[in-house]
Specification:
The structure holds 2 protein chains of 2 kinds.
Chain A lengths: L3 E7 L2 E7 L5 H8 L18 E4 L2 E4 L12 E3 L12 H8 L9 H14 L5 H8 L9 H14 L2
Parallel strand pairs in A: 1-5
Antiparallel strand pairs in A: 1-2, 3-4, 3-5
Helix pairs in contact in A: 2-5, 3-4, 4-5
Chain B lengths: L16 E3 L5 E4 L9 H13 L6 E4 L21 H24 L7 E3 L2 E3 L7 E2 H4 L29 H6 L14 E5 L8 E5 L1 H5 L4 E7 L2 E6 L2 H13 L1 E4 L10 H6 L3 E8 L10 E9 L11 E6 L4 E5 L4 H12 L6 E5 L11 H12 L7 E4 L2 H7 L6 E9 L5 E10 L15 H5 L32 E9 L14 H18 L4 H8 L3 H14 L11 E10 L3 E11 L3 E11 L6 H20 L29 E5 L15 H16 L10 H10 L1
Parallel strand pairs in B: 2-3, 7-17, 15-16, 19-20, 23-24
Antiparallel strand pairs in B: 1-2, 4-5, 5-6, 7-10, 8-11, 9-10, 12-20, 13-18, 14-15, 14-17, 18-19, 21-22, 22-23
Helix pairs in contact in B: 1-2, 12-16, 15-16
The chains are: A alpha+beta, B alpha+beta.
Chain lengths: 156, 700
């Protein structure tokens, strides 16, 4: 594919991507870099299913053009794990069985990981506020909040 | 239909189960993983009955050429029906392995113990395993009519098998599937329900880079490209360079009662024990309740994939019924049924008949333009919210007579609704969206209702569980509809239970009775009483605040499809906003296979029902659906979801019944009753927004 070349780090690895400058980051992640953990939900940044960390900030990758990610550090849900070990919040989601269909979980975990990095011991209100940009249709929100609090406890 | 216990099963054990030489167990099921954890429940059932480690069990997705036809995955019946069949098949298989083990160990079969894949016997000098015996046991054997069941053991506490992939972002969903040589498709849907295509710049789109094919057939317009982004771009090109004839065909959204009651409609009697007009009552009361159209609003838009090989089709879909979809596709394209293969691949949560089948057929129509190449189609968020079938709007009017003691003496209920199903194959048609848009295609007739013995549709949940001498319940289903509707979690029971349980609160108030006492006075069913008492006990109903203070508590109870029972206590705070502070539920769904699975379904059902109740309403003008994104169709957010407490009453002696839908109706009614207690005013029109409270005040 023709276009400009952009350099970015995704889940700890450097990539050079040649594509049109307005190509959504989500498309690059899913189709060029084999990172399907970021999901397409709405295309306009309103549901959180496609959230990734860009330089540490939870950001919708569906309406972030690739030029805006040039030179940035991108982390998808797959990059939260440290080698073979799950991130504490991923483990807590398994322990709490905090999902039904799981489609929103990628983005929820990305939001939660950013919260726990900045606020290692959040209270429930802080967890809820940090996840409020993520939508879940199956109604697993309370389990997810419990899982994030459990991950914070586990880190103590 | 899946046979119940003791009915003969024609297919052999091998239809459901395979044991490999390494001891790995493969379970084939006709039921699909829709986000409800059914794969895990089936693995638990098979592992429990066989006596093997659940980790050695793999449940494969439904496939029309490889697995049983167990109908559609719906109605919360998978554990009750297909689960029961699987349990019998697995118990039969265990008996065959036990017989072989007994032969080898030189003991009586009754002395063989099976634990974690090992078959042993007291006194025997050796043991054996499923792996060792696999090559010597023939599972092409009829399923025993009533095999000895182990029943649930410690193996049944199984963590969801699909979650490790989902928390680590591994490919799992249909949208993640990339087949060899795959192309990407997009459909340019009409801008409104009745729009027809006048012209489109097909040549211009064909000249765009990466475009492989443009398909125009009647009002079906789509594009295939070598890259998803290019398919998106070409679809946008077509969208902005096409013209449509758009008649105004939609009703006045602000006067849905006029639409629902305007007919023409088919009237039917749901239940009649006498003529309410002949009952002399001390007092009577009448009220009418309404529910708007609701969207499935799954977080993932619908996806489909298909490959056309010139004579045969292979389809990948998150459909609820691979066989029904196969038959519908064959009918729509006039193909022989065996030429179509459909296999299930997961997508995001499914709460009824959504766009899955339609997206699959979109992929089929596009794939036919590029023989030999698979095409994946994904809908836009806009199309998902405006073209997936809706849950029907509904209107419920109840008139009751009370005797001198305030007891219900008569009950007269009328329900106006569209039909609640238009699944593939309904009314003798394919029932696929694009099949209605192609030239000379198959139009979509008015939706129908499932038969009463399958739980009905508009009338589901319409017969109150309460004791009353005379009742009459009638339905009025529209024969012509403006918006497509089909099955959405609990169908008509959501609106009917909201109405019945709101109305019972109103009757209690008229009778000067406590709403809990009033219910108990009319409820003789012991299972109903038990869930009601368990919910109020857990919630602390006796100590609830009364008389103002902006906080109100409400209670409701219902039986779903003559099976599971659910009672709900809701606590609502109403100041400038309406805030749900807490939900407490008690459920009886018979024997519990996986308690955490039941809890998860109940919690999820309650949250989704709270979202419908407090926020949701499909919006439209006289031509187009206008609720097309998460701003115009908001759903409950993390900050709005209350703490939820669930009491599960296990009934090991009773058959397992579905948990997926029991919470929908009583949650809505409990919230409505709590709101009425908080604001001192009854709101009878959903959703229960501040605007609805103001409208109710203005009406007095």
């Amino acid at each position: 594919m023709t276009g400009e070349t952009f350099s970015l780090t995704v889940d700890g690895e450097r990539y050079d991507v040649t594509t049109a400058r307005d190509t959504p980051l989500l498309h690059v992640l899913r189709h060029e870099l084999g990172k399907p953990g970021a999901r397409f939900g709405c295309g306009v940044g309103l549901c959180g299913a496609c959230f990734v960390l860009i330089d540490g900030n939870p950001t919708p990758s569906c309406d972030t053009p690739i030029w805006a990610a040039d030179g940035k550090d991108v982390v998808t849900v797959a990059g939260l794990a440290d080698g073979g070990a799950l991130h504490p919040v991923q483990q807590a989601f398994l322990d709490e069985q905090a999902a039904q269909c799981g489609f929103c979980v990628s983005g929820v975990l990305v939001s939660a990981a950013a919260l726990l990095r900045d606020t290692p011991h959040p209270d429930e209100g802080q967890v809820v506020a940090a996840l409020d940009r993520n939508l879940c249709r199956c109604g697993a929100q309370r389990r997810m909040v419990a899982a994030v609090l459990r991950a914070a406890e586990a880190a103590e | 239909m899946t046979p119940g216990a003791d009915t003969p099963i024609v297919s052999p054990v091998s239809t459901w189960l395979h044991v490999a030489g390494d001891g790995a167990v493969t379970v084939r099921s006709g039921k699909a993983e829709l986000g409800q954890g059914i794969l895990t429940a089936f693995a638990a059932i098979a592992a429990g009955e066989l006596g093997v480690d659940p980790a050695s069990v793999r449940v494969v997705a439904p496939h029309t050429d490889d697995g049983p036809d167990e109908g559609i995955t719906a109605g919360s019946m998978s554990v009750a029906t297909a689960g029961a069949t699987l349990r019998r098949a697995a118990a039969t298989a265990r008996a065959l392995f036990v017989a072989e083990a007994a032969h080898r160990l030189g003991v009586h079969p009754a002395d063989v113990v099976v634990e974690r894949s090992v078959l042993s016997a007291p006194g025997a000098t050796t043991t054996t395993t499923y792996a060792e015996l696999a090559g010597h046991v023939d599972l092409d054997t009829p399923v025993d009519a009533s095999p000895t069941m182990r029943g649930p053991g410690p193996e049944t506490t199984v963590a969801r098998l699909d979650l490790p992939d989902k928390v680590t972002g591994r490919p799992r969903y249909l949208a993640d599937l990339v087949l060899p040589g795959q192309l990407w498709g997009r459909v340019v849907r009409p801008p409104s329900a009745a729009a027809t295509l006048v012209r489109a710049d097909v040549e211009g789109a064909q000249a765009l880079p990466g475009v492989v094919a443009v398909v125009r057939d009647g009002s079906f317009l789509g594009v295939v490209a070598d890259d998803e982004q290019r398919a998106e771009g070409a679809a946008e090109h077509l969208r902005t360079r096409s013209a449509w004839d758009e008649p105004d065909t939609l009703p006045d959204e602000d006067d849905l009662p006029a639409y629902l009651q305007g007919g023409p409609s088919t009237t039917f009697t749901v239940d009649e024990t006498g003529d309410p007009s002949t009952v002399t009552a001390a007092r009577s009361h009448e009220a009418t309740y309404s529910k708007p159209f609701l969207a499935h609003a799954s977080i993932a838009p619908s996806v489909g994939a298909a490959r056309w090989d010139g004579e045969s089709l292979h389809v990948w879909s998150h459909t609820q019924g691979v066989f029904a979809l196969r038959n519908a596709i064959a009918q729509a394209l006039d193909l022989d049924v065996p030429a179509v293969v459909v296999e299930h691949v997961e997508s995001a949560g499914c709460y009824g008949h959504n766009g899955a089948d339609d997206a699959a057929f979109d992929a089929v129509l596009l794939a036919r333009a590029v023989p030999g190449r698979p095409v994946q189609v994904r809908w836009s968020r806009r199309d998902e919210l405006s073209w997936s079938p809706f849950g029907s709007a509904q209107l419920v009017r109840i008139v009751a007579g009370l005797d001198n003691d305030g007891r219900i003496a008569s009950w007269d209920c009328d329900i106006w609704s569209q039909g609640h199903t238009s699944r593939p194959g309904y009314a003798g048609t394919p029932g696929l969206l694009a099949a209605a848009h192609v030239e000379g295609g198959h139009p979509l007739p008015a939706p129908v209702d499932p038969r009463p013995e399958r739980g009905a549709g508009s009338a589901r949940g319409a017969v109150p569980a309460y004791d009353m001498p005379v009742r009459r319940i009638r339905g009025h289903r529209l024969d012509r509809v403006a918006l497509r509707s089909s099955s959405l979690r609990s169908l008509g029971a959501f609106a009917n239970t909201f109405a019945i349980e709101s109305f019972v609160d109103e009757l209690a108030e008229l009778a000067g009775a406590d709403p809990l006492d009033y219910r108990l006075h009319h409820l003789s069913d012991p299972r109903g009483r038990a869930v009601l008492e368990a919910a109020v006990e857990r919630a602390g109903w006796a100590g609830r605040p009364r008389g103002g203070g902006d906080v109100g508590w409400g209670v409701a109870v219902a039986q779903y499809k003559k099976a599971g029972w659910c009672a709900v206590v809701a606590e609502v705070e109403a100041v400038s906003d309406i805030r749900l502070r807490r939900l407490t539920l008690a459920v009886d769904v018979g024997r519990v296979v996986q308690e955490d699975g039941v809890r998860n379904q109940i919690e999820g059902g309650a949250v989704q029902s709270a979202s419908w109740t407090l926020k949701e309403r499909v919006r439209f003008d006289r031509c187009r659906v206008t609720s097309v994104d998460w701003e115009t169709y908001p759903i409950l957010r993390f900050s709005e979801v209350p703490p939820i407490d669930v009491v599960v009453l296990d009934r090991p002696d009773l058959p397992s019944v579905g948990a997926g839908e029991v919470a929908q109706g009583p949650t809505a009614a409990a919230i409505a009753n709590a709101l009425a207690a908080a604001v001192g005013l009854r709101v009878r029109d959903l959703p229960l927004t501040p605007d609805a409270v103001v409208a109710a005040m203005e009406r007095g």
